[in-house]
Write a structure and sequence with these properties.
The longest helix has 18 residues, at 170-187. The chain is α/β, with parallel strands linked by helices and 348 residues long. It folds into two domains: 2-241, P-loop containing nucleotide triphosphate hydrolases (Rossmann fold); 248-340, 2-Layer Sandwich (Alpha-Beta Plaits). The strands form three sheets. It has a six-stranded mixed β-sheet with strand order 6-7-8-3-9-10, sandwiched between helices. Strands 2-1-4-5 form a four-stranded antiparallel β-sheet, covered by helices on one side. The chain has helices at 41-48, 71-78, 96-107, 111-124, 140-152, 170-187, 198-204, 222-227, 232-241, 248-256, 279-287, 317-329; strands spanning 2-9, 18-25, 30-34, 56-61, 64-65, 81-84, 158-162, 190-194, 207-212, 215-221, 263-271, 290-301, 304-314, 333-340. Strand 7, helix 6 and strand 8 form a beta-alpha-beta unit. The protein contains twelve helices and 14 strands. Helix 3 (96-107) packs across helix 4 (111-124), helix 3 packs parallel to helix 5 and helix 11 packs antiparallel against helix 12 (317-329). The chain is elongated.
């Protein structure tokens, strides 16, 4: 659906430099682009619909090379691409219904066709109660729904979202994500989204592309990128989103304990089916160890479980080693954090 081939963009007043980016997005896929501020995420998004023209390379959308087009032909190609920004940019002097109709009017659609398309979109996005209201009279999340409806007015094959949930509270963010999922699944619209909120990325993206200083540094399935980040930038970005980082006071306790402490502190990373297995209770039963749970979480990324658990193990050295071997035999990642002094109480 989208082919980005050896794309380069020189820096400018409203553009971050992009260097040799090649990326394919399949029809109906939801791709998230993440990176630090200034990485080039929004510039890449704008290059896809030619709002920012690349200095070299190709952008092909649905078989049409947009970089080879200009004028009327380019405008025809751009109609296949809708865009939603973090700002809704609605016209204050037009009603909700008239704002949604704007792209259809520019396209030159007949009045009958416009009315039918508006009725469908207003029903789909649950805007019936406000269709004759003005933007100043509706809520932030309703305005964003109107912006999405306007982006879908010309029935695009691709929808670009640049921080479309920015500034929304968690409940409103969830409603917009649910809507985007429906659009993606029911209509087969290909989604490419930029988001600073990795919780959003976890909810909706099939794959993740990571940019750093204008370069594509990592690309993979959402689950793989967020649970096994390869690049240091990705590791930094996802650490807080997956909540796998141990609190500082626990780090300090392990770091200041004597090297010969009685207990072994380890972190177990669970992925896939193993996250649902009673691993700790099985180790207690098999090896006669006791455990003090330091920190842990389990969450779901695109429907697959992922999490980590930091524990102190108390028992004989042989039993501890047998437990480590047991964990690794069950395809679990084990990291030895250090040895710590015995806490006041241990729990099994």
């Amino acid at each position: 659906m989208i082919i980005i081939d050896s794309l380069n963009k020189l820096p400018g007043p409203q553009a971050t430099a992009l260097r040799n980016i090649s990326l394919h997005v399949t029809k109906g896929e939801a791709l998230a682009i993440i990176g630090r501020a200034g990485a080039g995420k929004s510039t890449l998004l704008r290059c896809i619909n030619m709002l920012a023209r690349p200095d070299s390379g190709r952008v092909v959308v649905d078989g049409r090379d947009l970089t080879a087009l200009s004028g009327h032909d380019l405008r025809l190609g751009q109609r296949e691409i809708g865009m939603v920004l973090d700002r809704d940019n609605l016209l204050s002097n037009r009603t909700v219904r008239d704002n949604i109709a704007l792209p259809l009017e520019f396209k030159g659609s007949q009045n009958v066709g416009i009315r039918a398309q508006l009725d469908m979109l207003i029903n789909l996005l649950d805007l019936g109660e406000i269709e004759y209201a003005y933007p100043s009279d509706v809520t932030r999340v309703q305005r964003q729904r109107v912006a999405i409806a306007r982006a879908l007015a010309t029935t695009p094959k691709v929808l670009l979202c640049d921080d479309a949930t920015s500034g929304l509270d968690p409940e409103d963010t969830k409603s917009i994500l649910s809507l985007l999922k429906v659009i993606n699944a029911a209509f087969g619209v290909t989604l490419v989204l930029v988001s600073k909120d990795l919780q959003v990325v976890k909810e909706i993206a099939d794959r993740v592309a990571v940019l750093d200083h204008g370069e594509l540094v990592e690309l993979g399935s959402t689950f793989d990128v967020l649970t096994k980040p390869a690049h240091e930038i990705t590791q930094s970005l996802v650490r807080s989103a997956t909540r796998s980082e141990m609190p500082e006071f626990l780090k300090a306790r392990i770091g200041t304990s004597r090297s010969g402490g009685e207990h072994l502190a380890i972190r177990i990373t669970f992925t896939g089916p193993a996250a649902n297995e009673p691993i700790i209770s099985e180790m207690v039963r098999r090896f006669g160890l006791s455990f003090n749970i330091l920190y842990g979480h389990i969450e779901y990324i695109q429907g697959a479980p992922y999490g980590s658990l930091a524990v102190e193990m108390a028992g004989s050295e042989g039993a501890k080693q047998a437990a480590l071997d047991f964990l690794r035999a069950n395809d679990l990642k084990v990291e030895i954090l250090g040895r710590v002094d015995a806490p006041d109480h241990a729990v099994a």
